[in-house]
Amino acid sequence: MPECITSRENGKIKYACRLAASAGARRAEGAFLAEGYKLCRDLAQHCPPRMLFYTEAALQKHPQLAGMPCPQYLVAEHVAQKLADTQAGQGVFAVLEMPRPPAGLLRPGGRYLALERVQDPGNLGALLRSAAAFGYTAALLSPGCADPFAPKTLRAGMGAAGVIPALPTEDLPAALAALAAQGVACLAAALQGSRPLDELAGPWPGGLCIVIGSEGQGLSQKAIAACTASVRIPMAGGIESLNAGVAGGVLLWHFRAGGQQAARG
Description:
five-stranded mixed β-sheet; alpha/beta; 265 residues; seven-stranded parallel β-sheet; 12 strands; 34% helix
């Protein structure tokens, strides 16, 4: 039987709460806290679990939890409430190791997503989920982006943070210029000097990077200048813009590997 935790002041509970609350704690420990049976199960396929917490009700509903290869703890309902980041918690929580991206990930021929100051966790999670779904290689995150392993981002991404490497970069324009120098076409989602996405048909033998800016300010001039071209999504009905998550999803689908060639065929 797993150890039963009945105190909200238990050291393991405090540790898990620190991981949920602090990006600095997550970076220092190389670990994060996930909530919910499906999210924990999916992330555990890519991120080794360090410990698992669940209520008696959750274990009865998901008996397969007992088979997860890590220390497990049965927690009282009031303890689960302290761990929960949602009002309607499922009573399942996992501390998991952050994935370690392989070396040499940024190279010619890949498909990449680059984000500048995307602060909303929901948008960041949705963008990572779209990039993972459409087969992109990695995501580059500038300073000022939401944390991909924060609870709200994890929920919005539905486990995408475990699938697609999210690489922080201190200087996004410089990173874009380095990709462009290797032959990777960098397309800025910006109105300035832009072309409709249908006019940028590819193919992209050197690889492609879709670059998306913050919800309120868009891309910086330095980021746009580092890109190969600017692209816009044609819109009707007097709508001038879409939020970052929606616009990014459209662009990532349109420029997915093989997508345009298949559409033309």
